[in-house]
Amino acid sequence: MLCFVPIVSISNSYAQPSTSLDLLNNAKQYDGKTISYKGEVIGEVMVRVDYAWLHVNDGYIAIGIWAPKKMIQDIGYIGDYHKKGDTVEVFGTFHRSCSEHGGDLDIHASEIKTVASGSPVIQPISRKKVYLGVYSLILVLLFYAIKKFFRHR
Amino acid sequence: MILKPQLNDIKNIGYYLGRIILCIGLTMFLPFITGLLLFREPNPALDFLISANLTIFIGLALSWLCKTDRDLHSGPAMVVIALSWLAAMALSAVPLLLSGHYKSFLDACFETMSGFTTTGLTLVQDLDHLSRTHNLWRHLGPFIGGQGIAIIAISFLLEGTSGSLNLYLGEGRDEKLVPNVIHTARFIWAISIVYLILGTLALGLVGMSIGLKPPSAFFHAACVFMAGFDTAGFAPRSPNILYYHSLMFEIVTIFFMVVGSFNFNLHYQIWTGNFKEIRKNIETRTLLFVVMIVTLITMAGLRQMGVYSDGMIMFRKGFFQLISGQTTTGYMTIYAQQFIREWGDLALTGIIIAMGLGGCACSTAGGIKMLRVGIIYKAFRQDIKSILLSPNAIVAHKFHHIKTMFIEDRQVRAVLIVTLGYFLLYGLGTLVGVAVGYPFLDALFESTSAAGNVGLSCGITDTSMPAILKVTYIIEMWAGRLELMSVFALIGFLVAFVKGR
I need a labelling partner for B294 at 20 to 30 A (CA). Which of A105, B77, B300, B324 fits? Predict the structure, then answer.
């Protein structure tokens, strides 16, 4: 029974991934604890020697993840305007003020699992916008020409 | 008796307003071209083509319908300025609304007013997926508004008449760098563009050294510079400056925030080799003194709360947010929630004082301004001395701002009226914030941030906040940037229109 207790508490902490809002609102309680956090990888991966910074956004805000370089090699898509990034679940230690990184609020990852792969976001050119843009440009040029014509007369 | 404005007055205002709107429309071609050719984002680029055409059409129509050769006097010039900032807000919000990243037109207007007034409070949704084209426009807003919307029109589209001078003065700038107003406007642009090149280069190189790829590093650098030098505080990613996790990036950003908060007249003196002015100027001396005081208050507060275990970390975090508040930039290396939940009342008070007092006059910074704080302090000292000395003694105090001047009662009165106006503005936003249910200190923090054109947030600014609060903050940002006078002129004009004979 005694051996069972820590297993239950750890599995409980992983059972439900924390949200960024929950982490920010209860940073003191989570400080130094092992947590799981799930969201989309966004922005850029910034490699710093053997480690790297990546940012995971759960829909509210992005939180910085500090991870060994080899841990992020499986990440295929990083979200931006052109792509939907991979959805990952990060397991690691939450720091409300990381002493290693100048007081930044971050998560030091011990494991990163890709939950869903990202994909390119195909955005066909909107014909409506093309027509509106071209017609309004013609209108403005016409108006300008008429204005010039009347000024010279 | 109040005189009703005549048709000629309205035409006069309409003509200059049209010219300024035309300028705003022309600037939209920059994101259109870069979006299409550089970023390869055709849909966002088209948003700007449509918006530019709409804006140019309105500008041309207004200036044609209201064509006049009459020069613009100071009163109507202030009305033009007040209206042109509202027009810039509404028309520049169109491409943002078309992006689909704003919940409503009001939210898009909030964003553009926040940008143009160099505030930096944001209501964008899913910023991390926003196109580079729209992101560039978000950051161009502060670069245009920081120098002044009318400054562009004066530089390129208006003649060097007294009307141009009145427009320049109406935008909250009461100092000419050189005798000719067009040359002054062009000098302001020249300084800004030189700094833009240097800043983008410096931040781009730092960006590359911290792991960003070159195109990304220079895009981030240009955006962060424009919003940093122009004391706005927008950033291309949702964690703001915390995104970069770099001390060097923070130091370079601090440098440009401070430089951006300096008076353009001081820049002119430095450029012409008068380095002594930095040491002698009342504004730089007051700024240094105020920063020392608020640093002490903030650090004492942080120490009291025990948020940061290490002294160096406490200083790094505390000083960055403080300088960001003092220069009215609004860049953050902590999350908004941390202000309220971790920093404590004393540290927040330090930041609120810094935000309320702001940067230097005739700069891109907001707040009451150091020149006014310095003059009030000198006048206060002069009055205390007069009381203590014999009734026959004549006490005169001087201050140095480009040249040495005596403090005059008329000047002190003008300074106190504007200062009082700012306090009323801070109070108005706080009142509305409290009325809709936010705690007093949170409401005061956010209101001071909006009216002082700062952009630091304790979490109130969010798409879910009540519309009445969004409108209040828009009014605060607008009035704060124009230093109230142009807003009063517009109100006076409307009253005269309704009640005048």
Answer: A105
**B489, B82 in Cβ contact below 8 A?**
yes
Instruction: At B31, list the tokens.
Output: 């994101």
Q: To probe the interface with B, which of A21, A54, A97 has the most B CB atoms within 10 Å?
A: A97
Nearest to B56 among A63, A102, A140 (CB): A140
Scan for tokens 């907001």, then name that residue.
B366
Q: Could you say which of B57, B211, B307 has the minimum Cβ distance to residue A46?
A: B211
Query: At residue A7, what are phi and psi to the nearest 5 degrees?
Result: -65, -40
Q: What is the pLDDT of residues B167-224, one digit of tens each?
A: 877 776 777 777 778 888 888 888 899 999 999 999 999 999 999 999 999 999 999 9
Q: Is B253 on the interface with A (CB under 8 A)?
A: no
ipTM given for this complex: 0.88
Other beta carbons within 10 angstroms of residue A134's beta carbon come to 14
Closest CB to A81: pick one of B49, B129, B307.
B129
CB of B247 less than 8 A from some CB of A? yes
C-alpha to C-alpha distance for A39 and B246, rounded to whole angstroms: 23
Is A33 within 8 Å of A10 (Cβ atoms)? no
Reported pTM: 0.91
User: B90-142 pLDDT, tens per residue?
Assistant: 999 999 999 999 999 999 999 999 999 999 999 999 999 999 999 999 999 99
Contacts 24+ apart (CB under 8 A), B311-318: B313/A97, B313/A99, B313/A102, B313/A103, B314/A103, B316/A102, B316/A103, B316/B247, B316/B250, B317/A97, B317/A102, B317/A103, B318/B347
Token reading at A133: 């843009």
Rounded to 10°, the helix B311-326/B344-357 angle is 30
Distance CA B58, CA B69 (A): 20
Task: Report which DSSP code applies to A122.
Answer: -
- Calculate how close chain A gets to B259, using CA atoms only, in Å: 24
The secondary structure of B114-134 as a DSSP string is: HHHTT------SSGGGS-HHH
Class of residue B470 by CB neighbours under 10 A (exposed 0-12, middle 13-18, buried 19+): buried
Cβ separation B334–A62 shorter than 8 A:
no
Calculated CA dihedral for residues A65, A69, A73, A78, nearest 10 degrees = 40
For chain A, say whether B334 makes contact (Cβ under 8 Å): yes
Is B101's Cβ below 8 Å from some Cβ in A?
Answer: no
Dist CA B485 CA B86 (whole Å): 15
- Kindly report, residue by residue over A59-111, the tens digit of the pLDDT: 999 999 999 999 999 999 999 999 999 999 999 999 999 999 999 999 999 99
Do B50 and A53 lie within an 8 Å CB cutoff? no
Q: Which residues of A touch B47 (CB under 8 A)?
A: 129
Residues 6 or more apart whose CB falls under 8 angstroms from that of B339 comprise: B321, B348, B351, B445, B456, B457, B458, B459
Cβ of residue B131 closer than 8 Å to a chain A Cβ: yes
Q: Which residue has the tokens 């078309």?
A: B98
How far from B463 is each of B101, B123, B395, B411, CA to CA, in Å?
Answer: 11, 6, 54, 42
8 Å CB contact between B333 and B242: yes
* pLDDT in the model for residue B181: 80
**Which one, of B35, B430, B11, B192, lies nearest residue A129 by Cα?**
B35
Secondary structure of residue A43 in the 3-state scheme: strand
